[in-house]
């Protein structure tokens, strides 16, 4: 895995540890909120937290990338 991602084993382990700690903290937060408010409102909030930055990233990608030039058309010359 480290060779595929061009990272050292230490960085891979740090990334995985960070992922699992974030997952555990998210569960610690999500469970009590879900008990108080129900599942549906929480799902809508989490979906909005995901979709809004994704759309902003999509817009940013189109704003940053320069437009691609059109290929020149070969127009036959009259003799």
Features:
79 residues, mainly alpha, 75% helix
At a glance:
The chain has 79 residues and is mostly helical. The chain contains 3 helices and no strands.
Structure, explained:
By secondary structure, the chain is mainly α. It is built from three helices and no strands. It has helices at 2-5, 9-37, 39-64. Helix 2 crosses helix 3 (39-64). The longest helix has 29 residues, at 9-37. It is elongated, with a radius of gyration of 24 Å. The termini are far apart.
Mind describing the biggest β-sheet? Answer: none
Tally the helices: 3
- Portion of residues in helices? over 70%
Mean pLDDT: 82
Evaluate the radius of gyration: 24 Å
Annotation, overall tally of beta strands: 0
Low-confidence stretches: none
Structure classification: mainly alpha
User: β content, as a range?
Assistant: under 5%
- The H-and-E topology, N to C, reads as HHH
Q: N-to-C terminal Cα separation, in Å?
A: 63 Å
Instruction: Please state the oligomeric state of the protein chains shown.
Output: single chain
Global outline: elongated
Explain the layout of strands and helices:
Blueprint: H1 2-5, H2 9-37, H3 39-64
Helix pairs in contact: 2-3
């Amino acid at each position: 895995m480290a060779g595929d991602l061009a990272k050292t084993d230490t960085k891979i382990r740090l990334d995985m540890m960070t992922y699992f700690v974030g997952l555990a903290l998210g569960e610690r937060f999500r469970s009590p909120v879900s008990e108080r408010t129900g599942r549906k409102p929480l799902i809508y909030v989490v979906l909005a937290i995901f979709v809004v930055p994704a759309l902003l990233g999509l817009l940013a990608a189109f704003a940053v990338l320069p437009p691609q030039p059109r290929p020149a058309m070969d127009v036959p010359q009259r003799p």
